[in-house]
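[job 4471] stage=fold_predict status=RUNNING
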Amino acid sequence: MRKLLLSSALLLSLPAAAWESVCYEQKDPTKEVGEYPRGSGSYCAPAAGPNTARHRWVGELDEHRQLWELTREKAGLPAETSATARLRVFTSSQPLNVDGQQLTSLLPVPFAETARVQVRAFTPGELAQLPDFSYALWDWATGHETCPLPGIGADATQCHDFATHMGPVNSNHFVPQAGRFYAHYHGLALARARECKATKDALGAAGGRYGDYLRACETEALALEAVGHHYLQDAWSMGHMWQRWGSPELSDFPSGGDDPRDKAVLIALASGLLHGARGVLQRLPEWTSYDVNDALCAPHPSVEFVSPGGARYPAIGDDYLHLLGQGSTYAPQSERLLSCAVSGMREVYAAAGENHGALGAPADGLRTLDPTGPECFGQRATNRSMLEAAAVQFRIVGQQVTLGLDSRVVGWIIPTVAHETGEVPVPTRLKNQFRLEMQRIVSLTRLMAKERPEGTELADGRFGSFLGARPNGEYASGGVLASYIDPVLPWPSTPDTMPEAGGRALALARVFHRGHSAEWCRTSSSDGLEALRARASDVSLDAPTRAAACEVCSEFARRHLRVGTSPASYDTSAEPLCHYLSGGPYLYQSGPGTLEELANTWCGCP
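[job 4471] inference complete, writing structure tokens
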């Protein structure tokens, strides 16, 4: 009976995530976060990928978003930075089938080819969940409509499924890889923030007329920092304070003549059980009487981490965020996490020019740290903690049960889960190899926990390889973290030489086009603006396409439009946005009317 219940439970499980992320399907995804009742809507799964990109990441289990908002308050950022941003994205009319629904592609197109305008609503805090749903910000920006993992032949939905593809390559959610990915995104956020400040300085003479463009730029910088915060937050979930095996690239996993994903799925499942399975198993129906107090993430008296200075502290992880700020037990973990997160967030907001309001003082009791340094990514689980992790602990029918990961039951279940949920074949030879490897890992854990219970050798890679995959500290250590990583700035004209970097940078600049007003002003030409007008005034277009063409023409025309008839006769007190950012080119339209009305008139639109 126990075997049946446990196997049923594990068949529901996924490879390890950290603090919870959630996507709910909402009828109107453009509302403010506070307008959604907690727990409303249904989960976006099973249609991963394109469906997830079309809904809001708000709900009862959005621990990553909650951590971002807590950080924002502690950092002294104004509440306005958490308002819902609504990007009006210019796309084609290309149909897309998502879970039986006929939708329109979210891929941004050249502005002169616009056929539809679609709203992408989000808050920066929601994007702190992004690495659980997307491979990179460009992946979200393009609607999760492609597979970022190269050469595997999976469609967009398969590729974004956590059990089959995203989980097997989420080694970057564990230290030390998590530190490298945070450093990348923090660097992008700072670079983008400095571009925002340069734009603000250039617009100084405009008298504050273009603040919405500056806020759009700042929101994008905070969005990049939010993506990075996912990795920073993960590093402070107890289940992630050790070196999981493997790489962010499937191609780095050993194949031995098989598909490398076969072993990657098994490795992810084994890592997930060491990480702590409570986040999954506790969701079983109440009639099972389960109470899964499974280390590492769940509260456990023997689970501790060691700081770079050598001090030991208790810690928790997934599903236990509500305990982090209560009482003194987890105060050291909370203080360190928030000091790192606040330091990073304040650095980005200050660099951007504080366009949503003045930066307040940070909360008392927090330190200013280098958010990319060892104080923020040097914590490791003790050997004693790893011993507690090398089992599944749960209470059933009032009795406490501990099932070692080297047991025959687990040795049978994990390959079964890999086959059923991970969708990979697991031949007998691989099953046997897995069982032997697991026995070796658990035996080594028992020895190390006995000899040096307060040491961190196991968390620092002493496990060695597992199914041929090395500890994650040996991957993603060079200049290229992953083939799908967001390209270096500036966008759209990135100097990044990675394959497809140019197209990804262009897509990002098109989606965040208001934030990138300086770049679009500099690359605009009279011919390009005339092409927008020619399309907008084309009466042969169908009504939705012409409406979209008019909106994109008006959007860009107003950035260049002088109110008047010629260079010798116009209102010099109302210079357009691009006057300050690029010195033209200029359009002329006489008044009266608002700038939007005059731009519509110039475009030949109603």
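[job 4471] summary: The chain has a mean pLDDT of 91.
[job 4471] exit 0
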